[in-house]
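Handout, page 2. Input:
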Amino acid sequence: MCECIAQLYPPDSYLDRLNPVSFTGSPAKQIRESSCPDLRDRDHVIRPNHYLNAIMNKNGTLLCQKIRWGWSPVWSMGTRPPLTHLPLEIVMRSKVFKRIRNGGRALVAVDGWFDSASDGGSVTAACRFIYTKTRSEEPVYLAALAQTGDSASGCCGLVLITQGGGGSSGPLQLLALDGKRAVRWLDHSLDWPQAQTLVSDNFNTEQAFERIAVRQSAIASHR
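Output:
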């Protein structure tokens, strides 16, 4: 499953892409020359339990917000580690998540993400991670849920949404959306049948994305 994500540009550059009227151009490419960011970069490569930039729908306005990646529902605090991933079907169909799915829809704009190499098929022994990014170099928007508040709370945090996993549904993967579908995800009224349609109409993963094997040496000095 996803080990860390890459956010290489300022938050507003991702937000602008969801609002074509205000978008004036691509983010400055000089921020990153490499097609695969260095895992040792603490500023742009974000791991669970660290803060990331998320986009939320606040009363019809899209806003960027810093949120910790890792959510602790009140019923699990003190007994389980924070959740970093949740399956779409469970989120959309379980009454337990009704409150957060209605008001806590979020997007995490990324330039790519790192999975364990064991999840990504056959790679050389020197590689530990697989980096996934779009072939077009455009950012994608990962569906998420977030609990936020005016004051700090141990429950506040964000969890990424996954799809698939087992049987004919294929391997477990992040719910990565293009701009149009990302905005649809933020609609608080989106229900389970509509979410299924959203996923089925989403762009083809194999055609839209490329995967890069990352050598062990890229993380040698990170720990």
